[in-house]
Amino acid sequence: MPGTLEESGPQSDVAYRGAVALLAIPEELIALRQTLNDFIDREARPREEPRRREFQETGTLPDLLELKRELRRVSAANGFYQLFMPVDAGGSGVNNLGLVLCYETVAAAGSFLAENAGVLPGVEGPSRILLDCTDEQRERYLYPTMRAQKESAFALTEPDAGSDATRISTRATRTPEGFVINGRKHFITHGAQADYVLVFAVTEPGKGADGGITCFLVDSGTEGFEVARTQRTMYDDHQAELVFDDVHVSQDQILGREGHGFRSAMKWINGGRLSIAAGALGIAQQLTDRMVAYARTRESFGQLIGKHQYVQGMIVDSVCELDQARYLTYACADAIDNGADGRVEAAKAKLVATEMAGRVADRAIQVFGGTGFMTETGIERYARFLRGTRLYEGTSEILRTTIAKGLGL
Fold first, then answer.
1. Is 393 a catalytic residue?
2. Catalytic residue among 66, 177, 393, 397
């Protein structure tokens, strides 16, 4: 008789135990992974189950933003939302390996409320760039963000400055009272919903990243700052175009050192790339488990499709590539925790994990056939989401360039 989903068992347990043994992952991180899963079962699933069918059919919900915000606040109250911030800033100081384990766990859970900044922070939440806040700024921005009472957006990309972000043209001109910002940002995730925006602007033309770009904390509702339009994507979430038209800010709204905003942003990039890699691992694991279960139950031409070599090949390739990507990502995170610079390691992890997950999602659609192409399974939604992971926080091509530089090429 064909096996059921429950009988098939998640393949992730075997691969995860292997990675744990290889890297000697601390018991406290293993326990944290289980605690996080328990939180998702207790807090996220009851909120989403009555709405799951509507969400899968339409890709959105009228109250999705508020549901996510509510869950973020509960997550913060339980200590998950600020896990990766330093203890002296009010976080738990969980290291990069723990970060990878947690983001992978959330993505593998298959909860549409928990994933993508429902439990763990995305661009809207606390990140290490906010450690550059002054004491006054911490009270106004950092601590409320840690409690999920305020949300941010990261406004660096412009129409003429994408992968080469040092080409930004948004300008902050000095005045007796501070600065006046003029310019346009686009593809800004959470830009339309944020309470404040981290805006990067040129303060010393010609200096580029070495003293010429400053980061400002700009509150939504500031005169001259507006969301010009929503930029729709192939996925559920959509970005925003932000316009700054004579936006007056004070000296106190500079984040970190004047002229060194781009360098501050780089403090954030390694953790961001690792979290994306980990999320890709989790989604790929979820899809691989579903392929295995489906191949054990679905019949065609008088036998289970798992007996067909073409189907076996797609599943086996996915299992092997996923294991390889997981070991690499864990090892890269562990290397950073043990003193590696992190630029090459984070680039490797994101490149390999996101490219792998895209292939796994495509295979999952193929194994499920027409059913996989329908919204009711949710598989096509993951394929759309994963396509974007090869673009933001460094395209695959930029990551390859970073790795090449690390090789002295």
1. yes
2. 393
